Amino acid sequence: MSYKKHPPKAPHFDEQGRVAFEHINALIGNKAWNAWGFGKDKGNGLEWGLLRDKLGLERDYKPIILDAEKLANAGDYQILKDDVHAVTFYRFGNVTSDQENALLLALAMHSKVKKVFFADSLGDNVEELSHRLEDLRNSAESRNLAEMRVEYMDKPEAPKREPYVEYRENGKIKGLHYIKPKVDNDTGEIIKENMTWICDDLALVGEGKTQGGEYYYLFQWQNRDENKPRTVAIAREDFGTDSGWKMLKAQGLKMTQGSGLTQRLTEHFHFNGDHVTQWTITNVTGWLNGAYLLPNGEIIGTPLKPIHFTDRSSSSLGYTTSGTLADWQREIAQNVRGNASMMIGVAVALAAPMLSLLGRESFGVHLFAESSKGKSTTLNIANSIYGNPEKIKLSWSTTATGVKNEAAARNDGFITLDEIGQAKDGKNLETIAYDLFNETDKIRGEKEGGNRQIKRWKVSALSTGEKDLETQLRLQGAKVHAGQLVRLLNVPLEEAKHLHNFPNNKAHADHLNEKVQECFGVIGREWIAFLSNNVEAVKSTYKIIRQKWLDLSNNMSGQVQRVAGDRFAVLETALYLAKDLTQWTEEESAQAILKNFLNWKEEFGENSREETSLIRILTDWLLVNEASFIEYPADPNARTPIKVSGVRVLANEAKKEEEHYFIYPKIFDEIIEGFPKNMAHSILFSSGLLKKPKKPENGYNEYIFKISKKYIGKTVRAYKVMPFSDDESDSEKTE
Length: 735
What we know:
The chain has 735 residues and is an alpha/beta fold. The chain is built from 26 helices and 26 strands.
């Protein structure tokens, strides 16, 4: 232990040593200054006056004064001059053994005093501790132990002599106050504090940064009408501004209107509070930091790093709970048991938080049937997994932008879209059906330059309607993309057959629709908690079930295998893992998912959708546009088409030639628009509709034929199509 370069002097240090080898008196303890006196009573405090008179000291005698802070940090002060022979310390108030140890160690190391005494405030009960002093000077072991006690002792902070902000209770007024100390000019001690209230007990509980790099302060306080503290994130650029204070006050914080005081508060928090704890600031729900964030800001699980959610969806208030898990099991799950369409609705809902864990893409199931078959009931049941069905449901009548915004607000979550026939128009329907499962929004620019943060999401969706997606798109004049039909799966809805003692379907549905308003939200939280604690088991179970589905579909097209392994396998995995929550057996769940798969496959087919669609598109186009072809051999009575699409070569029985078409490249490209050209060529060739020349012409793709002048009087190039037979040999040669 050693002095600082210029150690401060203890109060009244310079007043001692008037006589060589003088015996010095000192006042110590947390009430030492009270004994000495303040203001006009300085040096004439009642307790000091009694002690001074008892010791026979002159009225102007000034003792060394060491309060609790100086005792704890005694090694940092000059306490006694070198010519002091003895000293007596009089205890006023509380003096701990650690404080006495620190004082004795300082005297041993930094003074030449021989005699040390301790006494009470009346000068009685005198105890000599000179032997302790000598032991500290002569024994390295004793000195080391004393130094360790000093190092680990609780040290009170030095009194603040400059204005500061601190929590105080001033009568009934509680909260952060602006404290302005009044300091004694002679002693430097605080003799009075002026307090001015600023705000409620506001605390800085950490800092955070968004994915976009914006910095935030996290504040917390307790509103009187709320059960738990409120946490608010303020952008650092807004903190201390009128808008920042307005935001805090809007959320319940009571505070002064004085601008000077709020400025003091701003300065206070820039340098005080918890600046160590780092929060994740996010407007995205779902899996984050090892926990799951619901759209209402509720966190399931314990995040590795604290999370603050800055956004809310339009339906966030619906993510509440009602009833118990047992209620949901008894009133809903048991009455859904055995009904495949209702069970797949539950499976789609449960699959939502699994997709990110399994690395699967977003998808949905579209249940279609005529009215009054249980579509709305199935949606209500599925929605009851996570919240109030009435408040979290969506409709196809929502705009495409609204649906995407909601998807972003429900990342790693579940969406329902009721009644596809209510879609505003074909374009809106097409956009929703395509963009919802793209998992990302368009890049949009900012007025100030640069681009906005791209919205991303991963969801599972359950849709209903009287017609399937493909039919509805065509009816509304929208394009049908094959990708839509493997992302949103068309599954015919089967009316409930297991009514569980209800007299008819209506009574069964009425019961379920009533009970989902009483029992909701609990099973979803239990399910997410299970997933959070069993990630590896989720992955391994899915791997096994997926292989089963791939084996089942191994002789089908790649698209069907993809749907089987990446969609239906996920749905079965969800029901398998949730068996303790639903109380459905593994066999019941597997059979329900298989039944829905077979129904889907019946609609979709076992071939790829592109193949089916392309063949139908080309053959339908030929039937509609037959009149746009020039016939060969020519009919002298036939009208020349206004728009010529190519040449129709009629069958020639003598030469054993079947009817075929030569379609101009521009027209052919229009027919297959929407499909990648190479893929379209390959599919149509494999089907036997599109032919290849025996020797493709240099500089042209392998499907282009050079047609002889005999057909239309000039040489042209075209695609050769055999619409009605695939027996024609590729060896046919044209001139």
